[in-house]
Amino acid sequence: MGFAGTKRKGAPFATAVRSARPSKFSSSPAAAMGDSSYEAAAALEALHEEWRDWALLLPDLTEVIAARVLAADVVDYMSMRAVCTRWRASTPCPRDPTLRDAHLRPRGWVALCDGDGVRPADACEVAFLNTATGRCVRVHLPELHGYRIVGFTDGLIILLNKDTTAVRVLHPFTRVAVDLPPIASIFNYMVKDQQSRAWMRAAVCMSQTSDSIAVVAWFPNSPGVVVAEPSFPCWYIIHHNIQLATAVSFQGRVYGVISNERQVVQVYPQCLNSYIAHIPNTFGIPQTHLFFLVESATRLILVLRHFHLYNTVEGYQPCGFALFEVDTTEHKRLNSLSNLGDRALFIGRDRCLSVSQNNLPSITGNTIYFYSQDLYPIIMYSVVPYSVLGNSLVRPCTCWRHRHHAHVVVATDRTAAVSAGGAKPSAVHDKAAADASK
């Protein structure tokens, strides 16, 4: 089997070229015309002599190339190792049994919902989108059978066993799984509400006590935050009276928002001063505020949704947004944002996502796509500077409504219809999958 850039065995290319050379003693017109053919054949021969067998790269050079590929994407790194045996032998295996190394996580990949009404855990496969390149692949994961997905962090899937309530963190591409103790005792002691159990959320972060990962879990309608590590015998309550409105894993730590106190805090690892900043209540009606945290291009962004009594258009009451960058350094403050650049934020109560329009032409930059079951399914808002308060004023520019489960969306202002289906995700390369299992 030959790969691009390798020589094929058989008759030498030069032999065929030399047999086509015209005799220098020939004076026929055909011989004269053969001069140009000879020059073309000689050029092809010279090009062939410059062809390299990439499988014979020096191991040191292969390691340098592999390090650069891994810095960009672990999935591309796995595909590179699957090219040939020499490359695989010259590069380290991407399987990290602890899942602690962030470089070996599929950081740029996010799980998608196909819109067909089938849960990924029931279908045992998940479609993943690379937000940097727009590449989409479908990964078959039989490990999802009997589990429920309760969170995503850096492309890792956090699973809850439906029978035993044991928690598992799964790398969808290398198939490495880290198991944690059952959370049933927390359910019985702290979370009495069945709806809160159903909406359990979890995130992966670095451990505070050992050289491994930790999983932090919280519940939307019940106060309390719990944590567990692979070496723990059970789950431990780290915050009894905190009820998180939203939380996200950012740079190995978990940050959250306490809505009743209007505070951004560091949830885990625990520290002496977990307070980050106070959220202002000068936007719209404070009782209508919703808070969302999203990681966007190495920044942590706080999105505040609010309503105004006087904002009513044809019976529809559009909401507004205020944007802040959360400074998690020693300054610990909120910095106003007036522009998202080429980024687009997808905001929802379940998940939040930031993508760039550069590799996704159907996405509009400097916008917010807001999903709410209470309003129209998806509303697109443009971000414009607001000079009065020195903050950002996010206003609706176009309202979009689903008609066929995200395959076709129709503009509510009856101006356009846009297909949102895109290219179908392709299956992961068999060699990359085989490489991940070795």
Give a description of the structure.
It is a single chain. The protein is an alpha+beta fold and 438 residues long. Among the domains are: 55-94; 285-411, no CATH class. 18% of the residues lie in helices and 37% in strands. The chain is built from nine helices and 27 strands. It has helices at 13-19, 29-50, 59-72, 74-81, 85-90, 120-123, 184-189, 194-198, 430-436, and strands spanning 109-112, 125-130, 136-140, 147-153, 156-161, 166-170, 177-182, 201-206, 213-219, 222-228, 236-239, 244-250, 253-258, 263-268, 275-278, 290-296, 299-307, 319-327, 333-336, 343-347, 352-356, 367-371, 378-386, 391-402, 408-411, 417-419, 426-427. Helix 3 (59-72) runs antiparallel to helix 4 (74-81) and helix 4 (74-81) crosses helix 9.
Summarize the structure.
With 438 residues, the chain is of the alpha+beta class. It has 9 helices and 27 strands. A 7-stranded mixed sheet has the order 21-20-22-23-24-25-26, with no helix packed on it.
Blueprint of the fold:
Layout: H1 13-19, H2 29-50, H3 59-72, H4 74-81, H5 85-90, E1 109-112, H6 120-123, E2 125-130, E3 136-140, E4 147-153, E5 156-161, E6 166-170, E7 177-182, H7 184-189, H8 194-198, E8 201-206, E9 213-219, E10 222-228, E11 236-239, E12 244-250, E13 253-258, E14 263-268, E15 275-278, E16 290-296, E17 299-307, E18 319-327, E19 333-336, E20 343-347, E21 352-356, E22 367-371, E23 378-386, E24 391-402, E25 408-411, E26 417-419, E27 426-427, H9 430-436
Parallel strand pairs: 3-27, 20-22
Antiparallel strand pairs: 1-2, 2-3, 4-5, 5-6, 6-7, 8-9, 9-10, 10-11, 12-13, 13-14, 14-15, 16-17, 17-18, 18-19, 20-21, 22-23, 23-24, 24-25, 25-26
Protein name: KIB1-4 beta-propeller domain-containing protein
Pfam family, one: Beta-prop_KIB1-4
InterPro entries: KIB1-4_b-propeller (IPR005174)
